[in-house]
Amino acid sequence: xxxxxxxxxxxxNILFRDSLTLRLLLxxxxxxxxxxxxxxxxxSAGGALAEIDGKPVYLPEFRAQxxxxxxxGDPRSLNPxxxxxxxxxxxxxxxxxxxxxxxxxxxxxxxLASEEERLRxxxxxxxxxxxxxxxxxxxxxxxxxxxxxxxxKKTLDLVLASQVRVSVEEVRHYYESHxxxxxxxxxxxxxxxxxxxxxxxxxxxxxxxxxEDMVKASDEMGAPLVDDGxxxxxxxxxxxxxxxxxxxxxxxxxxAGPMASDYGFHVVRVLDKKPxxxxxxxxxxxxxxxxxxxxxxxxxxxxxxxxxxxxAKVRFDQAFLESGQIGDSRR
Length: 331
Description:
2 domains; Chitinase A, domain 3; single chain; alpha+beta; 331 residues; disordered N terminus
């Protein structure tokens, strides 16, 4: 039997980083997941797909978890390793939830609401609902899945954080071994709009040059600024060369555009600039401390979860793993 080892702690670290791309993963808008959900046909709940300490797992629960993970709602569209990965994530959630109850650890409504607000920042209601529908999961089920993941993270943090120690020597050694990570390229703080036509971009340039607010003007033109108009730091080496040279030649307060790229026509207003810089150990220490702490937490959590899994009685329906159909064979 082919098995797959899922590092669910690493998945947690990914899910809770501040990144628009990974926010969209949680919201289920990756195209691959959407494609997997196409052609999903209804199946009855039928028998249990798995048992976790004697408690069954049914098909609707599997579908919701798979959709939440961005895999679509039809288990027959997944390969055996992916079906096992979804089931293992459900095992992890249930076992950690049980341990959380024993330790009187609860997720508060405020914590759930705060994380949902963070994840949905910059996504309008229509886009959010469309993304959930594409994955075959409703809002209430998505929120339930989010709460389960947050409880896992909270439990791991509370149980294991006190066991993590990072020494000054470890920080120094990491800095000496990874000096290149602390070379910061030149940056500009800018507001950035991407418009579908040169004419629209030119109109935005003219309106802003005449004194209009860039956020308001772009909204009125149906082309909201990137990140809702919040200024963002742009670094050298992460954009087309022609755009980069133009943007980095601007003085703070100046406007550039229209500038063509494969994505449309750009209008950028520079607000501030930072020269290239190499951080010394004192400047880098805090970031290194956070990284090493996260690495140690991940290692501890992986072992903790493996121990929890080893103490549980877990059975998977073998026919379901192999075909996505419910059968009588058990493992």
